[in-house]
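Quick one, T. Sequence first:
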Amino acid sequence: MTKARDLANFVSGTASTIDTAEITNSAITNDKLGSDISAAKLSAGTVPTARLGSGTANSSTFLAGDSTYKVAATEYDDNKIVNDISTLALHQATNNNSAKYNLTNSNVDVYQDSSAIANLTNVVRDTTGEYISSVIPADGIDSNTVLLLGMNNNVTDSSANNLTITNHNTVTFDSSTKKFGSHSARFTQANSEYLSTGDLSSGLTNAMATTGDFTVDYWLAYVSRSASNRHFSIGGGATPSSSTQPILALSINGAGTSGNINAHSGVGTGNWNSNETFSIASPWTSFRHYAYQRTSGTSYVWIDGVQCGNLNGATGLSGVNLMQNSNNLFVGARSVGTTEFFDGYIDEFRVSNNSRYTVGSNFTPHTTAYSAGSSNATGSYESTAQTANASVNKISGVVTYTNASGTNTLNTDIVLQVSANNGSNWSNATLTAAGSFSSGVLQAVTNDISVTAGTQLKYKISFANQASGSKVARINGVSLSY
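Structure tokens:
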């Protein structure tokens, strides 16, 4: 029959049109369409599996009421995409030096500030490198520190040199007037009180760079100002009554009536060749930060972090050996000055054998007492909570970290825990190494951590084996997705 042949050709693909009005049900055979297509067959009976493709039997039925033929309902795995987005977010935050920020279903932090940190236990956020570590770096006491006097009811040198400081005529210590710590040193001019060191030029762990760069900085508050209140002097006679002039002394002006600082530099015994003045703004009886620095032969002075002036060329001690005489330092006095003693308070007095400050720029003086570095074998910190729009029971994450020393083992030396109920319950994550994030920075990922359901998401990172010196880990950033 012509119409039947046309149908066969259409099914086999050799015909492009068919006149369906002239086809009877009896002409539609099982070998062409698989079954009679009456309405009843669409809701009952069976359908040959060849017509279902490559479906695999599981809990999802193909047709309502059909318990025989089923198709696969495998869940789509989007973890790779989620982790890539988290990594991109960390890159953006790092490049833009961003503080913590939140997306609809994730939060990102690279420790530009402490806004994402709820608490720190035996760890510290490094404000320069913007990372968190349980090995706490030195803060003001480092390999360039020749001398540091915290003046905490003693004259103990906190530098690696541990210098012996001699207290002349009993400089006292005050617990009520201080800048940092428990006390400051109280110098009384009428009693000729001062401190002195031994030889700063040799035999020390960190000796004074006598012909190179150096910095002397400290906090100071006047009680009274009279003729030549000396802050400090270097390279003078053995005692204030000596006839030998120091190479360097810093003080108020000779008259003691104006608000000026004089930096006196002597080239050779008894030769004074500079007398520079810099303004001191009121109030001079409050603690102010003073810094004297020689950089590449030129001397500079800062008061409260503001550069006041410079002494150029020879007048800046260019190429001059500071230790031409007694090789020591006086705090609160100078030689050839039997009446030139300081009257007031000094705190955090530091001598360094390098240039601490950038010439031509102002700086913010230190807001805490200087400290040496320390190591903690263990430590931890928690993030602040991020509020989710709906209850969460699974969390994924990306952690960026640096092996500052040795190779830290993920899930042992660096451990990540997450919570969705504000830390009431923590779930351990399994971190997997995921290659490099940037130069020297690695990344690790974790997927679909099951957590106690909630809307307050937090993470906690713990360190181990950090104090041995063989391993030092730094966490550079964390991104959670949910």
